[in-house]
Amino acid sequence: MEFILYEQKGSYAVITINREKALNALNSTVLEELDQTLDAVNLDEVRALVLTGSGAKSFVAGADIGEMSTLTKAEGEAFGKKGNDVFRKIENFPIPVIAAVNGFALGGGCELSMSCDIRICSDNAVFGQPEVGLGITPGFGGTQRLARLVGAGMAKQMIYTARNIKADEAYRIGLVNAVYPQEELLAAAEKMASGIAQNAPIAVRNCKKAINQGLDVDMDQAIVIEEKLFGDCFETQDQRYGMAFFLDKNKDKVKEPFKNC
Ligand code: CAA
Fold first, then answer.
1. How far is Cα 104 from Cα 23, in angstroms, rounded to an integer?
2. CB environment 84-98: b (16+ within 10 A), e (fewer)
3. Which residue has the least CA distance to atom 25 on ligand 1?
4. Which residues line the pocket of ligand 1, CB cutoff 6 A?
5. What percent of the chain has pLDDT over 70?
6. I need a labelling partner for 175 at 20 to 30 A (CA). Which of 119, 145, 168, 229 fits?
């Protein structure tokens, strides 16, 4: 791959957008390679992903402005779909994806982070949707996911004004869960991924499905989705083992890894 690095570290893996010279901007090749990388994740072994950008300056500084500058209306729409399809794949990916936002997360970069389950960032991170200053709308889900994450009022302010916000403000409005010194960010993301990977994999996957699918419907339907996914955990080896381990009164017992079944 030209622009994506992939490293499996036992039960979790790190995907790095590696186009540092262009601040990891998303051109068609980056999007295609990201899509292929997701398709190749070994879901029998990997239970959580970390997504980050190369270098200490930028997570992703947006979609590639050079590539977009000459697009026709139809090509613009197709480019939006290309990004949206990959980001939707991340959002619906069976296992949790943690965005480790290590600098600029502008336009498509902010949108990429929002397609992940969890966002943590470095203290030099900058978030924003600068598109209206370029004559376009956010095109990779920004108008939809930002409003859902931080509320319509704040999303509209950020998008209409095209004003960037720093890490502390992103934390204050709930766009990120935590802010770390730059040099500690990746370790923190990996620690979180590793911790998630130690929990029962079917249960974690079902939690992701329940939260995502439940948010798209009313509460009566959402609760039914939860009941089904809750029920699906029973009779699994992990449920039997997890509960038996709790009920076992032997204080010297050691918890074994969950087996994904
Ligand atoms: N597309 C293409 N190239 C980009 C880029 C982008 N989004 N962002 C940065 N680059 C390139 C620059 O052109 C520059 O390349 P050269 O060295 O070849 O000149 C290189 O990355 C370094 O960038 P700067 O010299 O500009 O670095 P800086 O530190 O002075 O500024 C920055 C950093 C504030 C992030 C600035 O690069 C910037 O404003 N980038 C654009 C941010 C932006 O508007 N993003 C939204 C894009 S639109 C979008 O994403 C639509 C959508 O929703 C799908």
1. 8
2. bebbeebbebebbbb
3. 22
4. 22-23, 25, 61-66, 83, 104, 106-108, 111, 130-131, 134, 138-140, 142
5. 100
6. 229
pLDDT tens-digit series, residues 129-168: 999 999 999 999 999 999 999 999 999 999 999 999 999 9
Helices then strands, counting H and E runs in the chain, come out as 11, 10
Q: Has 131 been annotated as catalytic?
A: yes
Contact 103, 57 (CB under 8 A): yes
Q: Which helix (H) or strand (E) holds 53?
A: strand 48-53
Query: For residue range 83-116, what is the model confidence (pLDDT) as tens digits?
Result: 999 999 999 999 999 999 999 999 999 999 999 9
CB atoms within 10 A of CB 51: 26
Residue 200 has pLDDT above 70, yes or no: yes
2, 33, 77, 131: the catalytic one is: 131
pTM: 0.98
Give, to the nearest 10 degrees, the angle between helix 28-40 and helix 73-91: 30
Give the chain's length.
261
Cα-to-centroid distance, 131 and ligand 1 (Å): 12
Index of the ligand 1 atom closest to the CA of residue 138: 53
For all residues of the chain together, what is the average pLDDT? 97
User: Distance from the CA of 61 to the center of ligand 1, in angstroms?
Assistant: 5
